What we know:
mainly alpha; elongated; 0% strand; 178 residues
Amino acid sequence: MVFDAYGYGNGNLQESLSPQGPGAGAAQPSASPLEGLLDPSYPRTHAALLKVAQMVTLLIAFICVRSSPWTKNYSAYSYFEVVTICDLIMILAFYLVHLFRFYRVLTCISWPLSELLHYLIGTLLLLIASIVAASKSYNQSGLVAGASFGFMATFLCMASIWLSYKISCVTQSTDAAV
């Protein structure tokens, strides 16, 4: 059984790695979708480590801006705070979907496509928020650090866009060609 970088697959990893091969124990009743819910190998994948790095940089960016004293451009920094926290929450949600294999239970959602759309929209908003925060920082160290971490998170999100595109679009187009 082949799993993509996000852990999507349609079978049990233990079954495919068993010495008898997939299909062994076919006389046993089928497993519940909730059985084996936690994916022990997902936290060590590149996609999971990338998500953790994104969450950490977004949290640092939020804390830097939140703890800085700023009186001017309240709306610019409020926008930055909202974008970083919303992006962090969505990345955490996708991390938990992969970690607990919710994509097996909620099959009505195209998870690779929804993650690709999230990263496209979230990265664009994060890039805009970081540019605005950097331009309105007035050389205050906390605001400059927050904008810098915002740019780092934007770069990490762009890497996730590339990974999501590679998985959702390129894989589907090669499947259609075969």
